[in-house]
Backbone:
């Protein structure tokens, strides 16, 4: 899988690297975090539900400490690799036929409202799109749109203010 840059240790620019691996038949996903000297910072085994493709990991400094948290699939880990929460719908996602992993996510402060943000949109194969509270893992809504496999945030409707999330099916 492609390597991602992240700002796990704080500072002006991201200097850390995330390497991902999905081992067929393992039922989980594996993450390694390295600093710029390629010293191992931490590793995470068996992310659940599994992440799918290259776009199912995201980074956001949700607590304003200068270090980015990791949204991996439908779970949140802190900058030290410790699990903070797993989506309350994780078991449901994993057991819907052809819904066993997260193909793509979009995470951010989309509502510009401290009571609603951050929000995680998780495209979970044939299970559709889960809209998840980015602080707690609570499922806010589920959209059964088919095999959601790409997730992009932007202002796709100039006639409407704000940001929308576009899902490829």
Residues:
């Amino acid at each position: 899988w492609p390597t991602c840059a992240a700002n796990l240790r704080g500072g002006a620019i991201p200097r850390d690297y995330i390497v991902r691996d999905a081992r067929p038949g393992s039922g989980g996903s594996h993450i390694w975090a390295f600093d710029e000297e390629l010293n191992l910072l931490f590793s995470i085994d068996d992310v659940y539900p599994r992440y799918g493709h290259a776009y199912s990991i995201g980074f956001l400094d949700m607590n304003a400490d200068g270090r980015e948290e990791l949204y991996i699939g439908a779970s949140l880990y802190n900058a030290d690799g410790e699990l903070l929460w797993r989506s309350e719908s994780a078991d449901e996602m994993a057991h819907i036929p052809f819904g066993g992993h997260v193909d793509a996510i979009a995470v951010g402060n989309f509502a510009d409202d401290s009571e609603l943000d951050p929000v995680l949109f998780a495209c979970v194969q044939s299970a559709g799109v889960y809209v998840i509270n980015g602080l707690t893992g609570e499922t806010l809504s589920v959209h059964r749109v088919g095999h959601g496999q790409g997730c992009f945030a932007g202002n796709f409707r100039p006639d409407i203010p704000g940001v929308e999330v576009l899902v490829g099916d």
